[in-house]
Amino acid sequence: MAETLFKPGHTACAGCGQAIAARLVIDAAGKNTIIANNTGCLEVFSTKYPESAWCVPWIHSLFENCSAVASGVESGLKFLGKKEGVNVIAQAGDGGTADIGLQALSGMLERGHDVLFVCYDNEAYMNTGIQRSGLTPTTSNTTTTPTGSASFGNPRPKKPMPDIAAAHGIPYAATASVGYPQDIQKKVKKALGIKGPKYLQIHVPCPLGWRHESSLTPEVAKLAVETGLYPIFEYENGQLIPRKIATLKPVEEYLKLQGRFKHLLKDPKALKEIQAVADYNVKKYGLSA
Amino acid sequence: MKEFLEGSHAIAQVIKSCRPGVISAYPITPQTHIVEDLAQMVANQELHAQFVNVESEHSAASVVLGAEATGVRSYTATSSQGLLLMAEVVFNIAGLRLPVVMTTANRAVSAPINIWNDQQDVMAVRDSGWVLLFAESIQEAVDLHLQAYKIGEDPRIMLPVMVNMDGFILTHGMEVVDMPSQEEVDKYLPSYNTTYKLDIEHPQTMGYLADPDYYLEIRYLVQQTQQELLGIIPQVAKEFQKTFGRESGGLIQTYRMEDADQAFVAAGSVCGTIRDAIDELRSKGRKVGLVKIATYRPFPKDAVAAALKNVREVAVVDKSVSLGGFGPFYTDLTSSLSFLAGKMPKVSGFILGLGGRDIRVGSIHDVYEKLGGKQVDCEFIGLKQELLAETE
Ligand SMILES: Cc1ncc(C[n+]2csc(CCOP(=O)(O)OP(=O)(O)O)c2C)c(N)n1
Ligand code: SF4
Ligand SMILES: [Mg+2]
């Protein structure tokens, strides 16, 4: 294995998309990087005392404040005259980004700190046992949006987090997927080359929470993109640059691999509604090749 | 140099002279004048700090946490609801052993919303691991901020320190204050140097997950450091006195306790009022004195027990209450005195001044009058019976 700044031996589940993505991110960022990490699976599986997987300076404070902690780190470095050449990354799960951490994130983006925020989107609160978050997709079966005689899973669509971040007028906001490792690393490098606040949201399958084979992580991730359910795009200074999809696949191919969508497969009407979500994404972000 | 100053302006000036690198705060009455002044100093380049205007107190505390973790001296200030919103981060800063200094302009908490002074806010973070100092006057508040950095940044300590100053009474009061010069402060408080920091040359992990195999010891070490502070804080106060020629801080201070057989115990600006009441009582031949709690965490259990060992009766004046329990000072004091066994004085607990209700010399006499009578543990002084009757 090539030299990495995220050592193996951590306690993530087999096939954890977030663990793969986190390594890709820090290896692209390089050793002159300081990370502030919210509470969540990544923090828990990588820093169980007295072990740490991190070969860069790394701090965890709380579930919702990594954006503010990173703001403080950046300000401290500025005061010391040491910010030049040092990257500051704030990173969190989807819950720590879009729900409880949104206020601190918005503050950091608005104040213009030179920080890259990375959201590892596994579409639920995994660390506490697969509860729904603001980034859980429609109909997903989670422990707090279970299916039942009066429920078809999560009733609400995903919060448009990348657009919310971009609406702050930041120079760079983008999405990526662990199905496309080189794309992640290219975007991390690009983002860190830009001064100011940056936002990167990475789709990271969670075999445990999504109930798919742990060997299928890359395939599941790719299918989310190829069906249009997880649009990949960049906003560079507000300008949309989509990653085009050569051949769009039907959403069923993505859904059928995962237990969280099992209840959909017998329901043509529900499948149609999910297909409509994908079609909307294709149109909104211009994904057709 | 002696100057006639508003409390908040004096605090801003002394903080400036401590040369913090990062300041972050969110406005709340009665803290605002302090941070407005600091913002102006940064704007005028009199103070070379990063001033981070955040969207909440939770983030203000998180910003100074992050800054302090880079090894930079940092400062924040808040009050009341702001401190409650910060609470989660306040505990975290102490657990991470980051020597942040914060001013709390003590104020009542909601509901009902009330911007006036009492000491309820700090009690919400009493158990967080912060060193908690209480100022009686503006002068003492100024002096305690210097001592706060000295105490917290001591490599043996590495804990955050909060200076409590009564909102409005001290933050907006005016007083002649002996302000230390920049040269004096630079000599007293050298720049902060630590290897415990986020540094790309020496990467380290801060904020681990500690399971049941480790957590107990890590928390115990904070308790142990707090106990060591009982030896260090008096040394810091002594050194301060040697440098600046004033008694400020320490664990406790006593007033007319030499031959006292009755005593008040209190903290903060109310001690000034109590001193006046004591002078009046003394002129009538009453042997009464004051034990002022200058350091509330660590609780100076041996110092208060020694000061009160020959006393027959004690009146504890609390400006906050653990609803359903007792005044916090009362609880700590009675726990500490219980070690005196047979010689334990009769201790009564009184609640005064919540939500800015005036505490006058007469109010202290009201407390004193109760001393001869039945022992009480949590008696509210100055209740308006007619208002209570309305709610019946
Ligand atoms: C203030 C607070 N509320 C709740 C929690 C419990 N909690 C810890 S991690 C977590 C879920 C994390 O979800 P996410 O951010 O999506 O990260 P993931 O674990 O899925 O990677 C929750 C609810 C907490 N630690 N702090
Ligand atoms: S629960 Fe999911 S996100 Fe958490 S470690 Fe396991 S696979 Fe990764
Ligand atoms: Mg998640």
Describe this structure in words.
The complex is a heterodimer of chains A (289) and B (392). Chain A is of the alpha/beta class. Chain A has a single domain (17-285), classed as Rossmann fold (3-Layer(aba) Sandwich), CATH 3.40.50.970. In chain A, 36% of the residues lie in helices and 16% in strands. Chain A contains eleven helices and ten strands. In chain A, β5 and β6 form a beta hairpin. In chain A, α1 packs across α7 and α3 runs parallel beside α5 (102-111). The longest helix of chain A has 18 residues, at 268-285. With 392 residues, chain B is of the alpha/beta class. Chain B folds into two domains: 2-244, 3-Layer(aba) Sandwich (Rossmann fold), CATH 3.40.50.970; 252-390, Rossmann fold, CATH 3.40.50. Helices cover 40% and strands 19% of the residues of chain B. Chain B is built from 13 helices and 16 strands. Chain B has helices spanning 7-17, 32-43, 57-69, 80-95, 120-123, 138-153, 182-188, 215-244, 270-283, 301-307, 328-337, 361-371, 385-390, and strands at residues 2-6, 22-25, 50-53, 74-78, 101-106, 131-134, 161-166, 174-178, 205-206, 252-255, 262-266, 288-293, 295-297, 313-318, 346-351, 379-380. Chain B has a seven-stranded mixed sheet with strand order 3-2-4-5-7-6-13, with helices on both faces. In chain B, strands 10-12-11-14-15-16 form a six-stranded mixed sheet, with helices on both faces. In chain B, α12 (361-371) links the parallel β15 and β16. Chain B is globular and about 65 Å long. The N and C termini of chain B lie far apart (56 Å). The model of chain B has no long low-confidence stretch (mean pLDDT 97). Classes of the chains: A alpha/beta (289), B alpha/beta (392). The structure holds thiamine diphosphate, iron/sulfur cluster and magnesium ion. Magnesium ion binds next to α4 of chain A.
